[in-house]
Records
---
Amino acid sequence: MRRMPAVIIALAVLAASSVSCAEEALTDAKRADIERLLQMTDALKIGQMFASTATRQFEQTLRKLRPDIPAELFGMVREEVQKTVDESMVAKGGLIDQLIPLYHRYFSHDDIKAMIAFYSTPVGQKTISLMPQMAQDSVALGQQWAQRMRPVLEQRIKARFKQRGIDI
């Protein structure tokens, strides 16, 4: 718990420094450091993980709709999706090219260098190794939470409508 104020202060400093990032030029050095940060953090693997999840969901739906499709064709679907995603990430105008301006907009070059320094530490490496699973778990938790919220929201909205004399 003692680390929490330090984390909050660090985030506040980072937020304050990122306000002026739009004024900073995207130099070749900053671009290279952003690319290095993306590689260090396995940012593209997170994209691949989501592609894999989407592929599994697509397969499940397709299997229900078309149980006659041979199982080996689903392996082909996975291969094609993965190949396409991989190519798209590194292609001109692909995901990396789209992420670089985003990182540039929100982080100064000093911020990027600080993140590279952090991710070079043991706790930074641990964070990187846990990011994909944490992202996947977070999505699952978010979906479960949304499912639990749906009936509550429906009930509250119905009550508000009822106050206005409308039954839904």
Note: The chain has a mean pLDDT of 84.
---
Amino acid sequence: MSRPDVSEERRPQIVDAAIQVFIRKGYRNATMPDVAREAGLSVGGVYWYFNSKDEIVAAILERLFEKDFGAFSAFLQAETPAAERLHALADGYAQSFQEWAWLNAIGIEFYGEATYNDKVGSVIRRYLQRYRTALVTLIEHGIQRGEFRRVDPTDAANALLGMEEGLALLLVADPDGIRWQESFKIGVELMIAGLRTPEQL
């Protein structure tokens, strides 16, 4: 028997329940029956929409990532200076991060899971690739317009990604030792200053 059309209500209900379970128990300790109880559904009802925890993880990550990517096309198509757009993109990321900060620990666990769970890893790699591509395109615009130095745009994009994800890891590992927003703002300022040509400084 083929599955019916995916319910507009059931999938978000299950995803919301899974988030709560993962927060309480962690991804590895959570089970599909746990998610079913949290959602008020039978285990079979959960499996009707998701074949595994991995699929639920993918749905959680896609929910978060789609919000971030919604504004990318506008940034890439704008005619404002590349540094200004990079600032705006970083500000949008920081706002999104603060909004979803309560999920940061789960995100770090998903990253760890990605080292040996290819289904989770593939979702994270898709996110990173989309974000990296947007950053590369923006940095290339700056180089072509003479606003940025001639650097490898992929390396520069990865440096920014590494700063973002590294600070998120520090926040989980040592929350009292880091002021995330302040550190991120300084990092972005330093990176943009390093990208600018002497004429743009």
Note: Residues 60-200 form a domain with the Tetracycline Repressor; domain 2 fold (CATH 1.10.357.10).
